[in-house]
Amino acid sequence: MAEEVKLIGCWASPFTLRIQLALKLKGIKYEYIEEDLSNKSPLLLHYNPVHKKVPVLVHNGKPIAESLVILEYIDETWTHHPFLPKEPYHRATARFWAKFVDEKIFQTALKASAATGEEKEQIMEEIGEQMKLLEKELKENDFLGREGIGYLDIVAFSIFYFFQIRQEVMRIELISEEKFPVLWKWVGKLSEIVGVKESLPPRETFCLHYSSHKDTGFKIC
Amino acid sequence: MAEEVKLIGCWASPFTLRIQLALKLKGIKYEYIEEDLSNKSPLLLHYNPVHKKVPVLVHNGKPIAESLVILEYIDETWTHHPFLPKEPYHRATARFWAKFVDEKIFQTALKASAATGEEKEQIMEEIGEQMKLLEKELKENDFLGREGIGYLDIVAFSIFYFFQIRQEVMRIELISEEKFPVLWKWVGKLSEIVGVKESLPPRETFCLHYSSHKDTGFKIC
Description:
Two copies of one chain form a homodimer.
Chain A: E1 5-9, H1 14-26, E2 31-34, H2 42-47, E3 56-59, E4 62-65, H3 67-77, H4 88-114, H5 117-139, H6 151-169, H7 181-192, H8 203-212
Parallel strand pairs in A: 1-2
Antiparallel strand pairs in A: 1-3, 3-4
């Protein structure tokens, strides 16, 4: 049977971006279906009735939702160029930090954009502390995945790439060369890698998108 | 080298319980270290400096934190009686629902305990809707893991067992035989299984613990 791979996503979603990157890096051909999240399609509601969110990967008619779950599925289904390290302890470390990026760094950034004044300052400090921990993890390795672009690189990059562009437009400074030189260099290096580079939506389109959502804070679909 | 397995936990934590269950079901001997979360030990802070939370599994001196990450580590390190199904799509399904139990059902239950009046009623309805989805998933299978006690059974059971005991003491009705007959029967069946049964702290001790935290809501360490 011929493989049928579809991805329901939203171009401005870091969680969609990570699946696009993963499929590109594995060299898997897929059909991309852009979702209008302000008017959700029957297709999305059919394939992800629990969360009604993107991304959803549909492989030979079977849907998989939740970006971290999708990444593991891709890695287990197409086993060439594995994203997760082989050794169980390194796999656990990658999964630990991926959860940290999604549940701590990203969630704290969302809170920051909704806050003002002193509260905002406090939350920004919190993000700074969280980023420091990841910077330390990266310091002795070229990639977070240690052995090349891996699961954690894909997860973290999709978030930090958005942070980097976002601060060109908004007033929140989430990642800077001065504060996080290692992470900054790493984002730059990953942006240039073949496979990654072609998956990134144009910087200008992003800037325009964020500019139009300036008042609503950290608007990400 | 002889295996050295330690578990830093808290007896009243469902997240600790799931690791105890997993180790017991795999037949792995370990040293259990009870943590006083009101006065965190240097050992816990050393092994989990990022979250400072239990459970932490320490295997031959290497720490692994976050209960879902630990479960995958256990399954990948001691490969007999696998918890996760073999087939990638079934693995993805188990991971999807495990995230759902932790990030939706458990988090909504926490919110419910802090709420009052109309807000509480709304949140309770939300939990009911979430539980219905899982009940549906379980309906056609004896276990959530399909092929025997698996990853998702361990994850969900550790939460629902606490729900079941808790409602003997508190006023929130989280799970009932009338509303969720399939889940109810499944919790009962799992409680009786050898390996699971011996890992459960005595019901009376739990009831006493919850009674003493009646005023503070859904107190779980």
